[in-house]
Each structure stands twice: as structure tokens, then as C-alpha cells.
Amino acid sequence: MKKFSQMAIPYIVWSILMLVLPMALIAFYSVTQPGNSIISFSVTLEHYVKFFTDADFLIILWRSLWIAFKTTIICLLIGYPVAYYISHCQERVQNILVFCITMPMWINMLVRTYAWIGLLSQDGLIQRLLKMLGLGNTELLYTEGAVLLGMVYNFIPFMILQINTTLCKMDDSLLEAAADLGADSIQAFGRVTLPLSIPGVVNGITLVFLPAVSSFFIPKLLGGGKYFLIGNVIENQFITVGEWNFGSAISMIIAVIMMLLMMCVHKAEARNQGGKEEA
Amino acid sequence: MKKRKRPVLKALMALMIVFFYLPIIYMIVFSFNEGKSLTVFTGLSLRWYQHMLETGGMLEALYTTFSVAVIASFISTVVGTFTAIGLSKSKKLIRDLMEQVDNLPMMNPEIVTAIGLMLLFITFRVEKGYITMLLAHIAFCIPYVILSVMPKIRSLDPDLADAAMDLGATPWQALMKVIIPQIMPGIVSGGLIAFTMSVDDFIISYFVTGGGVKNLSIMVYTMSRRINPSINAASTLMIGIITIVLLIINVGPLFAAKRQKREKERKKILLPAALAAVCAAGCIVFVRFGDMQEKRPFEGEILHIYNWGEYTGENIIGDFEEDTGAKVILENYDSNEQMYIKVANGESYDILVPSDYMIQRLILEEYLQKLDHTKLTCMDKLTDAVKGLSYDPENAYSIPYFWGTVGIVYDKNKVDVESLEQEGFNIFLNEKYQGDIYLYDSERDSFMMALKALGYSMNTEDAKELDEAYEWLVRCVETMEPEIVTDEIIDNMAQGRRALGLMYSGDAAYVMAENENMGFYLPKTGTNLWSDAMVIPKNAKNPELAHAFINFASDYEGAYDNSSYVGYTSANQEVMDVLSGPGGDFEGISAYIPRTDCEFDEVFVYNEKTRKEISNMWSRVKIVASNANPSKH
Amino acid sequence: MEEKKLIEFRNIVKSFDGQIVLKGVNLDIYENEFVTLLGPSGCGKTTLLRILGGFIDADEGKIIFKGEEINHKPPYKRELNTVFQKYALFPHLNVYENIAFGLKINKISKDVIDQKVMKMLKLIGLEGFEGKNITLLSGGQQQRVAIARALVNEPKVLLLDEPLAALDLKLRQEMQYELKRIQQEVGITFIFVTHDQEEALTMSDKIVVMKNGEIQQVGTPQEIYNEPANRYVANFIGESNIISGVMLEDYKVWFDDLVFDCVDFGFKKREQVDVVIRPEDIDIVGKEKGKMTGEVRSVLFKGVHYEVMVETIPGTQVTVNMQVIRSHDAVSEDGKEKISATNFYVDLEDVKSLDDKEVVARSNAQAWNPETDDYISISRIEFDVREEEGQYPVLFSTSNGTSIERTIFVVNQPFVSNEKANEAVMAFNFQTTAEEIRESQALDTDMKTWASAQAWKLSDESQSVDISVDYDFEPENVAEGVYRITFSTMGREFKIHTTDYIKEGQEVGLTFFPEDIHVMSRMVY
Predict the structure, then answer these.
(1) In Å, how far are A71, A106, A205, B596, C231 from A146, measured between CA atoms?
(2) Which one of A270, B285, B461, C240 has the largest count of C-beta atoms within 10 Å of its C-beta?
(3) Domain end position, chosen among B196, B225, B254
(4) Closest by alpha carbon to A160, among A103, A222, A219, A231?
């Protein structure tokens, strides 16, 4: 079998080059000054200090986490029932519905988000509908609500698909067992279905929260220029301000925060699931 | 157990489907709209498809999107599959370690991965472009393939390969004839995931691309500021291609399943998928290269232009390509600073169109080459007002493109001219208009406005005056709830959505031409008299062709096309006269002819120290603004 | 045992996707019984159990539980609990929580739950396991937890759906006693589904044998074993010799050309019947003392006993000539290809079905490279056979043109039929080479192919009968010449379990008592 294991070697080299090295470079940039090279540099923590001593950056970081949190909760609250519904359909219908949900993902995210601009803008379809319902002339585009909507729109398929997968994998006999032991359908859901779908929920949360925190085109497209999230700050540092070192430091910070958060979530899941089968 | 009907869930599911498809259908519908509006359907037309075909950039973006996706998903599927098989036979330590490494792009925010790759390419001086984009896509696709193939390998009987070899197969045969067919479902789904990720990607592509290579996402992102229904057309085309591919993949086997057994159809998925992808790519290649023609002076040469978004006429690029046989790659930026960073990073362009102060800076930092005036035929066609300006007194480096001022566009029904005359730029602090104003996202012009409102020079180096200007802006964003926008201000003001907005004169001219209720006012305390000019960087690959383009764009026809389409004041005297004269597009529109008689008007001067300060302060103002009223409604 | 009806199935019909799984089942189950539903997979036993559990609805019929129809009661309202085939233990809960699940649902107070769970753990012998992760338990332990989880709710009936299927043999036997013990201890009705007759016999008070959605027989294990209702039940339960016979009159049955005394009565005169004699009920005695005689064909050691096969009526046989000829390869001009084939016989009736593949197989045609021994494919086979007796040429050639011609003999081969044994045998003369015989890896099978030997039931020609081959040459030293090969079927054989060793080939007598004969109605298919 020696021969087969050698097939992994090219990729190991590649992944060190393309996956590990970039992270190392970000770390390197984040602790050096502009103009430093790999040969001669001086380590500094000033970029980190700058970030953490500035209330405005911290507020943006907080807001990014907060809106990602809200996005995740909304995706979960809507996505779970939808996934539940799908998993209880006939297999053929299930396939069609899953296809319906995956299909938009094949169409570029930017394109899909762009489509919302027309829908949300003044005199757009939704505004006109609201007006017809007598809900007045509220501004929709370039608000936090629009950003939230864009994020939910873009990320909810991940949630639905993840939860649906675990629900489908679940052994029907477990539900029968619950019914057999006296649980009606609501009790069976609360005591069996829900706890057993936690791994899917956790995966879904990861897949929604992660891109939501760092998204920068959704706030830019739907939030107008003034709705800043941490992703926009990073983009700004690299694309317009040119402070790569500071930008790298922010990237490091966000990467570390996400890693810690994900570790917490998975720890909590592991504790919750005591002896769950590895699916 | 019997499945009961769940009406609430059913309704939710239906709503979900509507939610998913409403924007897509909306976009498809409006791609056939006759008018430019994204909200009012005025009639059926294929105008935007035609526009898309003519401008070319869109098709190229589609081509890039799909060709990168097909190549990247193919390579990553092959590499990922073999790697997964290899890893499954490797030592546990290596396997666990690689699992962690593979998790990097999946557990990291995408923007971090993107920046990492960008830094990697820059550090190792790999020229950013198609290849870097492809490499990056392969890099983030492989982990998904491995993730999808690995479980299938784990569930395989570990003796399979041994059994095959025991029966006389070579390891390679054992792999191809036994293992690969067994894990085919995993490989196919891995490939599909990779394809989806690649087609869907924006963030990583955005950071690692260069040289004008754009996929559809980048295209949409850089063009989304102004309404451009061509985006809808391109998107619809993309949806069409994707739908066909998906239908072939998903529905094909459904029909086949009726006749065939499950096992066989698996293999059949790959073929139509690959065929469809190849067809799609082929179509685009055909459209792209289908129009090769006979010999012309610059046949087959390439001109890289890095210009502002929406800053070229409808036909000028096409005409230039037609005349010279050269191919123009047009890349857009939305601020001088963004352009500067790319240029300073050594990206090569043939023509840039920076503003005055940025030209000064580029000259100072020796990024520009002197123009060869013997090759230029346009000098005497230019209006005097833009020749020999302080940033380049001899026009040794730059040929003006557009010029103008910065002023206030106002809704005549909401704002009276008296209060404008009284307050000047300070009207942006008048609480009467709270929540009814637009600021422009430009550090220079925002500070210009504040400094002029305070009665200072906009080129001041006095820290105290700059601080005051900063306070002025902070006060504005904290009390007035302004929207800080870029080009989207144009369409919004044209539709009268706000009472006041800070705007370039050229954009104002367009707004006034669209909406007669709009007026343009230049405060008496002075404003920024700016000009954008064409320059050739030192690292230009084709200065010869660049000179030809400068001549072409400054000539009557080119300049007329530019100015009439974009609305900015042409540097060509004749064009300016014709357009503002009787019967011209901008007859009677004051904003078209820049003010040249106010003593307080100034041209920006480059100063490294104040630039940095202003840049920092402005990004701070924006953060304050976003923190002041994050959720307005 | 208290004779109180607990559950009544009334004419239960169920079909899935148009396929009828239960064809009107009627069954009564009494209190405190250990009832086993026994049958092969697909017989409908699990479906019946699931209908009782409430997981699927019957299409027709009534389920009555304690005098009350429960057809439309959801499972969580039925006073019975189920142990599922793969246990369906909740992976997210530990042992204690799994067992307590039903009690918690019913809002029993915490201390009562505690008590009951502990009692259950004791009953199943898993004290101290309450905090364990259930996925880490062994199969047998999981099994016990599943039983405890069901029993703790004090159901009137416990349904067990093949619960022992996933366990290994030793554990399975252990659990059989364990289950019986638990049933006796808690004193409730167990309904147990299995396909394992040994399990059924060991544990049950009552066995319900099912086949194709119908009940074949209901009875105690003894009744089922000793007095199977029909051939199917007899075959399914234990080992048996089943012979078709005729009931002459009460207490007199005829089979194998002999009349025997028996204890059965109530059949019509001269009714066609099946007769069962269990292998352990037959005794081997001296040739002259037996009720029937035969030759010992095989003796297998089975541990506690020998399994002896005695042939009482010889099989049907046919003898053909095997002509061993000299090697007759054809060699190509360059010597790089060799091709060989033999003449063969074919029955007039089989001419129709003679295709290329068949011709190659019968003539044993092959081509190879003599230097490397690699096989070369025979690319062309030309033959022209009519449905008429005679000799026809056949030509085999490779793609390089190396060829060989042979003859197909079309004959009207008579077959040997044996009315008594209800079978017929046929075989053809054939040619082969000494080399073929020497190199054959499975000579018996090859000779059957070469001779096209076949045997079938006279009553049903599509049903083939095994043939054995007999010859008296040594394959290693076979020379050119003609040899006689006998193909024969097995005759009537009796299986006998005995503790005494008997030599193969010995002539023995068989005897049994009238009460060892069990006469059953002939099954109608």
C-alpha cells in the first residue's frame, strides 16, 4: 500500500504552499511594519494595539458579530422548519425541493444580491406592495434590515441543507420507538428529533455565521456606503487605504475570534451529545 | 407512521421558494426591460443583451467565470480524489494533520483566505491574473472534494485493492478499475461542490485577480454602483447556462432511472455534466473569439486601461478596437487610492486616468513615463482651462480626459436657492434636511467641502484647520444622518430621492438632464476645480498603443462619445461647445460648463503628510457615521 | 396458564405497493403467553407486529385489544411496547435516560422514575451502567437496555422484532434464556418475531408459523414439531424426511411401495398425503429386521450424533461411452497458434438452442499460443445444422485464420425415465483427449458438460435433479480408448440421526414405530 500513500505527497506539498503559507504570511504582516521584508524586519504589536484601543473598531467588530448572530438565528428559526418539512416529504418530492434550494446557490452570490437592489429600492416591487398594504413609504434599501435580508437570503440554504441532511439520516425507528414509549409527535420531536439534529444545526450555524461575519459585499451592495462591517474595514485597508499590515492584523484577529467561537460551539455540541454516534 | 399534512410548514416552504426565486425572476424580467430603470418596466426589448454583446467585458467575465470553474473543479476533483485515496493509506499522524490543514479554508472567514493568497502571490511576485485566480480556486476547491470523497473511501472494504492485486491487477489498475468506480458517487458530488464553490466565489477572486481578469462577481461588484441592466442580462445568461447544466445533470438520470438500474446511471452523470460544461465554455469561447478580423495597425496587441467605473462612452472602446485591431482590457476602480495601490504594487497598465493630485503624486514617486509629444496629435484640440495646470505644468505626463467642479445638487422643490447662497456647504449641517442628504465617499472632496465651509484653503497643511474640518464632518454624520455613497448617488438624485447631495459637476449634468427639478449650486466660498487626465505608467507594456488611444480619446469623435454618454465635461473644446450649445445634449445645463471665474476655486495639490492624515480621518468619519446610526429605520 | 384473550387479529389484510403482504390473518393471543411469529423473511410476520404496534395501519380487518378495537389508536396510546430489531436506542441519551424515556414522557415523578429504572437495571443485570453511553455498549447489553426501556413502562404486551438477529450464536442462546426468564418474572405477554426455528422452539409457549402472509399453523412447540400441519411447516421446523404417499384408510399409509401402520386418521380414502418421519425417530437395524432396507450412502459426524443417509431406492442412471482420442490440435503455419476442438453429440430437440457459445462449450474448443500459453480468442465459428439426425461439420478459426474442423452428430437420444422416482436422466457419448482429462480441475463437472448430462423431474421438466458421475479409470493415467461413464441421480434417501457409527456402503434395515409416522394433508400450491 506504500504506493497509494505516496499519492498524497504532491497535495501535502501544495497545501503547505497554498494553505499554510498564506496564513503564515498574514501573521507575518500583522506583526511587521510596511516596507519590511522577510529578510529584515522588526516585530511590533502596534497594529493589534491600534485595533483594540480604538472604540470605533471595537464597535464595528461587535456589530459584525451581532449581525452575524442575528442572521444565524433567523436562518435557524426559518431554516429548521423548512428542513423538517422537506425531510418529511416523499423521497421524490424531497429531491425536487432540495434541488430548488440548491439551484440558487449555483447562481453567483453577487448576482443574487444585486437582484435585491431593484426589488428593495424606492418604487421597487416590495415598496409598492407595502404601499398597497398601506404600510407607508419606508426606506428598505441601504438599511440594516436590507443587509440582514441579504445575508439571510445568501446563507440560509446552507442551514436548510445541513439540517435536512441530518434529519434524513435519522433512523425512523427512533421515532417509532419514541411513539411506542408514549411520546406524542410533539414530545417525540422535542426529545428525539431535535436533540439528534443538533450536529446538523451546529454545521449549519458554522456555515452561516462564518461567512456572515466577514461578508463585505452584502453590506456594501445593500447597506450603502455607510454600513460598515469588519469585512469592509479589512477590504478598505487592503484596497483603498493600503495599510496591509494593519489589515493583516485585523484579519488575524477575526480569524482567531472565529476559531475560538467555533471551538466553543463544537465543545458545547460534544458535551450535549454525550454519546452521539459519529454520523 | 402516517405522514400528516402540515399546512403551516407547507406555507412556509412555499414562501421560502418565493423568497429564493423572486429576485432571480425579477432580474430575468428586468433584463428584458426597455428602459434603464430597475423598478419600472417600460417595455420588452433586447437592448441590454445587445449592449452586453457590444461591450464585450461581460461576456469575457462570463467566460472567465465558467472556464475557471470548469478547469478548477476538474483539477481539484482529480487531485482531491487521488489525495484522499493516498491519505486514507497514510499514517494516522499525517492524516490528522492534513485534516486540520484542509479545514483552514473552510473554517476561516473567506476574506482571510483571500488575503492570505493575495499576500502569497505578491510576496512571491506572481503576476496576478487568470492563473492566480485559477490557482486560488483550485486551492479552496480541493478540500471540499477531499471532504466529499473521504467518507466513501472509509466505507470501502479495505481489502478491495488487495483483492484486485491478488487477481493480477497492477496497483494502477486496482485503483482505476476497482477503487475509483466504487467511490464514484463521492467523486461526482465533490466535483459538483467544487464547481458550485468556484462559480459562486467572489471574495477570493476579488483579491487575487489582476490584469483586468474579472469573473462575473467582480464585474457586478465594480459596476453595481450605477444602474446597469446589462448586469441583469449577463446574469440571466449565466442563469440560463447553469439551468441547462443542472437540468442535464439532475433530470437526465431521472429519466434514465426509469429504464436503467441505479448502478449504471452513476457513470452517466459525469458525462452529460462534463459535456454541458464543455458546451457552455465552448459557446463563450466561440462568441469571444468569433470576431477575429483582418490586419490593422495594432492587430492582436493588447491595451490595458485602468479607468474609473462608468467613465467611458458606449462606443469608444469598440471603435478603437475596430480601428486598430488591438484588444482593450478595461479595468475599473472607484477611487484614486484604490488605483494607486494597484499601481504601486507593480501591476502593469498602459493607461491610467487619475485625478490631478494623484497625477502629481505618481509623477513624484516616479511611476509615470513622459509622454512622447511627437506622437500626440491632440494638444491643440484641448480647452485652455485644462492645459498646463499646476500638477503637470508642461503636460509632460498627462493629457486631460474630463474636468469639472464639485458642487451641490439640490431638489428645487425642497431647497430654495437663497438658503444655499447664504449657507454654502454649511447647508449640510442644516437640520432641516436631516436624513435627506447624500455625502460622497471621497476623502478629498469631503474634506474640501468641510474646509471650504469653514473658509479655509482645501490644500491647507495646518493641522488645526484639518482638525476643525474633521469635527465639521463628524458633526455632519452624527447629526444629519447622511448616506455616504459613491456612484449610486447619480441614479438616486436623478430620481429625486434626497434634497441635497455633494456631486461632481459631470454627474450633476447627467442628473439635471434626467430630472428638471434638480439644480446645481457652486458655493461662493470656492470648490475643487478638478481634472482627470490620461497618463502612461513606466511599466506600461505597450506605450505605443497607449499614445494611439490618448489621441483617439481626445479626438472629436472619441471625446464626444465619452462626454455625451458619461456627462462629464470634455477636455476637447469643440466637443464642449457642441454639447452645451444649441441642440446639444447639455444645452442649458449649468453644471456642464465648469466655473472658471471664482477666486476661491482651487486645484488639489499633493502632499504626502496631509494625504495620510486626511485618509485616516475620513475612514474614521465613515466609521463614526456607521456607528452613529447603524440602524436608521 | 390463564386462558384470557388479550389480543385478537380479525382478518387483517395489508399490501404495500400493490403487493399483498398479509392475506387476512386471524389470530388470538392470550395473557401471559410467550408467542412467537415464525417464518422466513417476507412472510409478513414483522408487518403483523408493526400493525399491532401501531406503526402501520392495516388495510382491512380489526385489531382488538382487551375487547376494544384499537385500529386507529396512535402508538403512544397503546398499552404495549416494542423492542426494535436494531434496538432504536436514542444515541443522544445514556442508559439511564433511555430507560427513563417513557416514564419522563408520562410525567412520572423523579424518585419513582429512579426506583423503576434501578429495578429494571437489576432485572436485566446492568446495574452500575446507568451513566454509560449506549453506543459504547456491546450488542447484548444494548439488547437488554432496549428490553428494559420497553418493560419499565409496564406494558400489557411486549413486542420483540427479531431482537436477537444481530447477536452472535453464543450470545443469542444466552439471551434466549434471559428473555424467557424475564417473561416469566414480569408475567406479561411477549410477542416475538423470528425466522430462527430453534429460537422459537426454545422460548415459546405458542408458535405461529407464517408463510406468504398466511398463518400455516398455530400450536405449542411440541405440536408444531411432532405434528406439523403440512410439508412447509415440517420442512421449516427441524429436519425431516418428507415422502409423498397415499392414505389407504385410517391408520394405514402407503409410501415407497410399502404399506405402514400409523396413528393418523380422518383422511379421505386414497387421499394423496405427505408423510413425515423425523431423522431421530428412525432406527438402523440389521438388514433383515428392517421395515425397509437400503444402502448407507454417507455418514457425517455432527457432534452429538451421526447423520446417516440411507438409500432405500436406487437412483436412475445412464451410461455413455467416452472416447479418449489422441491430441488433435491444428497448428498455424508459423507455429504461433494452436487450436483444438472435439466432435460432439447433440439432441435433436436442442439443435434450436445451439449458438456459438454453446458450440464452443460442447466441443471444448480453444486456441492458444504454444510458446506463451496465452489464450487466443476464437473469432469465427461456422456451422450449419438442421433439425434432422445426421453429421454436420463445424469450423472454428482464429482471427489469423488458424482453423480446425469437427463434426456435430445430431441424434435422437432416448432418455432413461424412472416413473417410481419421478425422474429422467439423459447423456450423450462424447470424445475427449487424455490431456483434457488430466488438466481438468473439476473432472465431474467437465464430464457432465462434455456429455451434456441432465436429469429432471417427470412431473415438472423445468425442475432439474442433481446427478453424480461414476467411472472406473484413473484420470492421471488415462490412455486412448473407450471408457464407460455412468451418470446417476440419487434415489430415495432417508436421513437418520443415530449415535452409533455405521460404515458407508453397508446394507442396513430401517425401522420406526407407527407413532413416528406423521401424515399431513398434501399442500396445495
Answers:
(1) 12, 22, 21, 43, 76
(2) C240
(3) B225
(4) A103
Per-residue cell: C459: 412431473
Which grid cell is B377?
496629435
DSSP code per residue over A188-250: HIIIIIHHHTHHHHHHHHHHHHHHHHH--HHHHHHS-TT---HHHHHHHIIIII--HHHHHHH
> Is residue B133 within 8 Å of residue B208, measured between CB atoms?
yes
Whole-angstrom Cα distance, residue B565 to residue B594? 18
Contacts of B24 in chain A (CB under 8 A): 104, 107, 112, 115
In this structure, the answer to whether residues B424 and B498 fall within a common structural domain is: yes
Domain boundary among B225, B250, B273: B225
Question: Over the stretch C455-502, which tens digit does the pLDDT of each residue have?
Answer: 888 877 888 888 888 888 888 888 888 899 989 887 788 899 998 888
Which residue out of A30, A71, A108 would a mutagenesis test of the B interface target, given it has the greatest number of B Cβ atoms within 10 Å?
A: A108
The DSSP H or E segment spanning C63 is strand C60-65
Are B631 and A57 in contact (CB < 8 Å)? no
Show the cell assigned to B196: 458550485
- What's the total number of domains in chain B? 4
Q: Sheet holding C390-398: strands in order across?
A: C344-347, C403-411, C390-398, C378-383
C39 and C211 Cβ atoms separated by less than 8 Å: yes
Element (H, E) at B544: helix B543-554
Q: What kind and span of H or E run contains C9?
A: strand C5-16
Residue B8 lies in a domain: no
In chain B, residues with a C-beta closer than 8 Å to the C-beta of A115 are 23-24, 26-27, 232, 235
Question: Does residue B70 share a domain with residue B43?
Answer: no
Q: How confident is the model at residue C524 (pLDDT cuts 50, 70, 90)?
A: low
Chains that touch C (3 or more CB pairs under 8 A): A, B
Q: What is the DSSP letter of B378?
A: -
Reading the block at residue B311, the C-alpha cell is: 467613465
Q: Which of C398, C403, C332 is nearest to C371 (CA)?
A: C332
B131: in domain: yes
Residue type, B298: F
The owner of cell 434471559 is C178
Q: Is residue B350 part of a domain?
A: yes
Do B84 and B47 belong to one domain? no
Range of the domain at B206: 57-225
CA distance B379 to C147: 97
Render C428-493 in DSSP notation, one character per residue.
--EEEEHHHHHH-SSHHHHHHHHHT-EEEESS-TTSB--EEEE--S-GGG--SEEEEEEEEE--EE
In a domain, B499, yes or no: yes
**Structure confidence by residue, pLDDT tens digits, C172-208:** 888 888 889 889 988 899 999 999 888 899 899 999 9
Give the dihedral sign, CA B618/B621/B623/B629.
negative
User: Bridge-partner residues for C382, per DSSP?
Assistant: C395
Interface A-C, measured as beta-carbon pairs within 8 A, has a size of 91
Whether residue B105 and residue A19 make contact (CB cut-off 8 A), yes or no, is yes
Residue type at C88? A
End-to-end CA distance of chain A: 28
Name the class of domain C5-234. alpha beta
C481-489 and C214-219 strand pairing: unpaired
Answer for the pair A98, A243: CB distance below 8 angstroms, yes or no: no
Interface A-B: count of C-beta contacts within 8 A: 316
**pLDDT tens digits, B535-572:** 999 989 899 999 999 999 988 888 998 888 888 888 89
Task: For residues B396 and B410, state if they share a domain.
Answer: no
- Residue B35 burial (C-beta neighbours within 10 Å; 0-12, 13-18, 19+): middle
Question: Per the confidence metrics, is the pTM higher than 0.90?
Answer: no
Cell of C482: 473407450
- CATH 3.40.50.300-classified regions of chain C: 5-234
pLDDT of res. B264: 45
Q: What is the ipTM of this complex?
A: 0.91
Structural domain harbouring A88: 50-272
Q: How many CA atoms lie within 13 A of B312 on its CB side?
A: 28
